[in-house]
Every structure is written in structure tokens, then in C-alpha cells.
Design a protein that fits this description.
This protein is mainly beta and 262 residues long. Helices cover 3% and strands 34% of the residues. It is built from two helices and 19 strands. A 13-stranded mixed beta sheet has the order 5-1-6-8-9-10-11-12-13-14-19-18-15. Strands 4-3-2-7 form a four-stranded mixed beta sheet, with no helix packed on it. A hairpin with a 2-residue loop joins β3 (38-41) and β4 (44-47). The longest helix is centred in the N-terminal third of the chain and has 5 residues, at 31-35. The model has no long low-confidence stretch (mean pLDDT 96).
Length: 262
């Protein structure tokens, strides 16, 4: 196993872009090659070592055997894990936009909060955020209709609006509360929110499942209450308690399931 430790030594208000700081790209690089890896600082290309002290231990024969640990004030570090396919990235701090965007495999753990577009257009792998995320987690990008279609996102804090927009597969679990319009335009996959939703879950949702274990501020008129079930089996797991099943969204002839704990 090879571990690459990055320690931020210089914070910047202009974003750093980490799209090429990936286990599959760095696992077999020498220390000098890692230090000289180019990253974007705004519209300028600079060396990774300009902003981070770097230490490495161990060896790896593939990206699956590589862990990158990023430490410091990372709130202006974007695109961590972009198109990642292998290995693990651990970010110890708050991170900027597009964490795990278009991710295909591996695992990302954030010990802090994350900005917008976590896991956008994600295809596989796992993302764990041990804080809050902003809007459009697991969603499509602006102008696109293809959101997350595989993998799993676990949010141990709260989520912003339009969680899982245009989602077609995969799973999102939120252990805190969620802002308005989760699962909007969703066509497949599974979302579970263990806290409250401000209002309007599953707008224009065609297929898929959303489970809410807290309160829902307002349900859209396109959903019809079908029945109340004790301890239902949903997405292959039993959920303890009474759950009301709503079907919809009828405005788009949807066949989605909205389960709300009573």
C-alpha cells in the first residue's frame, strides 16, 4: 500500500483544481514527479509542491493500492476525485465544488463539509461526507439531463436543495435534513433522508424510490397516497415503523415511490 500525504502550506482565495491528483495517476510516481505534478491555480498551471508539502510511504502495484490524504484548509480546492476510478482519497477539511464528479470507482472520504455538485454525474464508487453538502449533490450539471447513475453517496450532515436531480441510479443516504426539491426529475435509484425535508420532494419524478424518516413540509399535488404499511420492505431492507406510500408524479405519468414515516 502506498500513502501520499499532502499538507497545505499556502492557502489561496483563487481555486486550485485537483482533477489530476488521483490514485491511479500517482501510485507509481516518484516523490519528485508528484511534487512537480501540475495543477491549475485559476488560469495558471503551477506545481503541486507550490501549495503542499508532500510525503510518501510504501509502494503500490496499481491505483487500488494507493491512498491520497489531503490536509489543511481545502475550501478553495475543487474537483477532488474528478473521474476517479481506483484507490482512496481522504480530505481532512472542508472542500470546494465538484467533489467526486463523474466518479467511476474507488472511495472518497471528507472529514468536513463539501460545496455544490458532490458526485455530479457519478457512475460508481463511494463518497462519504462527514459534514454537510450544498446544492445539487448527485445531480446533473447545468444544461444536462443525466445525473448520478451508479455508486453510493453517504452524507452524515445536512444536504442542500435539489439533491439527486435527474438521478437515474445508485444510492444517496442523508442522515441529517434536506432542503427543497430532493429527487426532482429523478428516473431511477434510491434516496433515503433520515431527517426532515423543507418541502416538495420528488417533483416530476418518474421512477425510483425516496424514503423520508423525518417530516416533509409540503407534498406536491402530483402524488397520491396509496396505503400505510407497518414495517415495509423497501429497496431490499425492512424499515421499522409505519410508512405511508405515495405514488407519482402523476404530472409526468410517473411510477415512483415516495415513502414517508408516520
Amino acid at each position: 500500500m502506498r500513502t501520499i500525504n499532502l499538507f497545505m502550506k499556502q492557502h489561496t482565495k483563487i481555486p486550485l483544481e485537483f482533477d489530476n491528483i488521483l490514485p491511479e495517476l500517482l501510485y507509481d510516481k516518484t516523490d519528485d514527479e508528484i511534487e512537480n505534478t501540475l495543477i491549475y491555480h485559476g488560469n495558471r498551471r503551477e506545481n503541486l509542491s507550490d501549495y503542499f508539502n508532500i510525503t510518501t510511504t510504501g509502494e503500490a502495484s496499481s491505483g487500488d493500492e494507493c491512498v491520497i490524504i489531503i490536509n489543511g484548509n481545502l475550501d478553495r480546492v475543487k474537483y477532488i476525485g474528478l473521474r476517479m476510478t481506483k484507490g482512496q482519497i481522504i480530505a481532512n477539511g472542508n472542500v470546494d465544488m465538484h467533489l467526486g464528479a463523474q466518479m467511476q470507482g474507488g472511495e472518497i472520504i471528507v472529514n468536513g463539509n463539501a460545496e455544490s455538485y458532490v458526485g455530479r454525474e457519478m457512475q460508481g464508487g463511494n463518497i462519504i461526507v462527514n459534514g454537510d453538502v450544498k446544492e445539487f449533490c448527485g445531480a446533473s450539471y447545468m444544461g444536462e439531463w443525466r445525473g448520478m447513475n451508479g455508486g453510493c453517496i453517504l452524507i452524515n450532515g445536512n444536504a442542500g436543495r435539489q439533491l439527486g436531480e435527474c438521478m437515474s441510479g445508485g444510492e444517496i443516504i442523508v442522515n441529517g435534513n434536506c432542503d427543497m426539491l430532493p429527487a426532482i426529475h429523478m428516473t431511477g435509484g434510491y434516496i433515503q433522508i433520515n431527517g426532515n425535508i423543507s418541502k416538495w420532494p420528488a417533483g416530476q419524478m418518474k421512477r425510483g424510490i425516496i424514503v423520508v424518516n423525518g417530516d416533509v413540509g409540503e407534498i406536491l399535488e402530483g402524488f397520491t397516497k396509496k396505503e400505510v404499511i407497518q414495517n415495509p420492505q423497501i429497496n431490499g431492507e425492512y424499515h421499522i415503523g409505519k410508512y405511508a406510500l405515495y405514488a407519482g408524479d402523476e404530472t409526468v405519468r410517473g411510477k415512483a415511490q415516495l415513502w414517508i414515516k408516520q
